[in-house]
Amino acid sequence: MFNFFSYVLFSYLIFLSCTVHVGAQSITRGTYYPDFCQLAAKNDYVFNSFKRNPVYREILEHLPYELGALYLKTISAEYPELLAHVEKCRQNDLLGEPITFDYGQVGYFSPTTLRYIKVAGDLKKQFGDLSKMHIVEIGAGYGGQCKIIAELGGFASYTIIDLPECNALSKRYLDALGVQNVTFINNDNLSKAQKYDLVISNYAFSEIDRSEQEKYIEHVIKSTPNGYMTMNFISHFFNLKSLSMEEIVRVLQKNGRKGKVEHEKPLTHPDNLLLTWYSNKAVVQTLPKQAALKPSSNLQTSNAITYAFSGGRLGDNLIAYFHAKWLSYKYGLPFLYKPFLFSENFGLHDRDPIEGKDFLFKNVKIISKESDIQVAPSSTLFIVPYFPETKSEYEWIKHYELPFFTVDWEDPGFREEVIKCLTPKRPFNTFNPPANCVTVALHIRRGGEASLPGYTLTWPLKFVADDYYINQIQRVAKIFPKKDLFINLFTDDDKPDAIIKRYKKILKNPKIIFAHQKGKDLLEDFFSISKFDCCILCQSNFSVIASKLGNYSVLIAPVHASMKGNQPLIDEVDLTFKNK
Q1: Which of 339, 374, 410, 531 is deepest in the core (most CB within 10 A)?
Q2: What would the pLDDT profile of 429-450 be if each residue is shown by its tens digit?
Q3: Rounded Cα distance, 283 and 412, in Å
Q4: Strand 108-109 relative to strand 134-138: parallel, antiparallel, unpaired?
């Protein structure tokens, strides 16, 4: 252990011994970091405390206590099963003498290790069992993420691609901890890359120059069916020009990938994004086996589930229906249908028995959490109350008396059920967009309750300012730079032509054509939205559900707002993409 004086002196000697690299193609290559990694790999004295050295902490191991607490909160809420393995994960803090903090229930940890555990939870949730996967990580630091994944189920093989000096440190570190099946490839020798199942990058890919990124894309990313990359987009501060998110999405689309762009959680910087993707070939699962319900004057012996309405319009009723349908699907519970206005126009109308006097239950339970389903006695009818689609909307309106459940709309089996339920029962005169261009459905909610005082402040994701739509149109134009855009406006605003005129004036893009069909009725609009290549929507339940019928190349939706002055502004969106 260093005393303070020797620690400062030794750090200064390291500083003097390192050389600054010229013509850097990554943020770290232009610093003392690579030379320090090389020194730590060779020198026992440096290796024993490398994680707390100022040179190293410029790049890694600099996270504050508060971020560690946020990572732990996420783990506890979303991946509580990982808490049983914290002692094994604590091994990551045994080498290098990191700065650790007391996190109460789990004891002392470095914030960086907690981040690695949270990322491992993300990976297992997104991609399932990692133990049979061949994983490649771009820019692995000292190998901490590899160590944590090894402790939480392992992998078939793990390849680390990094600067030679960083690889030397990672190899020494992982060897010392007994992590096996790890291969190292220097970043200047990417031709050695093999076929992998999953590529990971915690910020590193976004911190290198465009020319280097293109090499990684060619040798690693294009051929890897699954990916998880946290991106910080700070390279321009270091005179490096990196690929934009839109350019990366375009590459993935061309190579048959589908995926999502969202803010990292927890958010460590306002501009940080998480990019995930997976193969476009999804295996459709079968619905869980459900107990049969038989109309009878006697009590039902099994449980069932239905839903309550919010008193809203078509979109609200469909959201209530599908939120309950998800819990029915997830837990294999028989589903009881409650008709609502316009519901006879959809396949869902005769898909399930109707809730009513033919089905009698000993207990009726309005559920507030999923554990209610798991512990209820037999002969219970569960009622799912209406709840918002997005968590941020739930938190914004502070309706904590409502429950909130996360619905996995991308689950293949559930998605198949959603499409069958939304299939129209009769033909509709839907609008067919033109060919030979990229077509975009743009849904703007302005009518109805929007005229009520304070209503747009209460529901900021539904009644969204023009800036949001204009920014997302520009984003779509960047993803398809060589294509004309045909944008069709779907809105309840009584002056759609004025909206189009305003957008044209701001965008000034001759490759964008706007249109709006007058006289369309509600259901014709609903079934028309799915006909387009792309969709930009607000969190109106009408367009949220209508979009579930679509097979979009790009789908963009707002997921969070914050107050700027006296107006709410969208500060976070989700972008999902696929190659149609």
Answers
A1: 531
A2: 899 999 999 999 999 998 765 5
A3: 7
A4: unpaired
